[in-house]
Amino acid sequence: MTFVLPLLSVLVLGSQVSSIKPSDSPLSMCNGLIEPSVLSIDKPLKNVAAPRGESVILRCAFYASPQPSITWYHRGKRVDTYPAANFETLLSTTNLGQSVVESALRIDCLDESTAGEYFCEATSPCTQPVVTSSIVSIDRGEYFRLMFILSNRQNGQTRSTGLDAV
Questions:
Q1: Signal peptide span per the entry (predicted)?
Q2: Domain total in the chain
């Protein structure tokens, strides 16, 4: 048995009740909020450098009222247009009050095609969009340190370079 409720939310304003229907315009939803609408970055994206082939998880979070929609971009293109797009927003219910919405994007295999600039954009019908960005890069330093150690060992050099612990 399925129940369909026509109301998205009921807001109590003292003795007055304001109903917001899904068919209402975004402006009427914004005017029906008890608290002023807000949209700001709670956790900005961070730059990440990881070895080629590793998986990387990017996380962003926004403090908002009402709850925003979050969209990921890689090099200016929406991430959900990629065949292997793998992201989730960690709050699945619509909330008209103030809340923190976190989203995570997993890059399964870091390489030249998945490295680059990423944007996490939050949009709300009541505010301007807010964006945070990061650069995901391949850490080539690890590769060169290992090649240096292997080269020294093959040449019979055993003196400590300070990199032997790698």
A1: 1-19
A2: 1
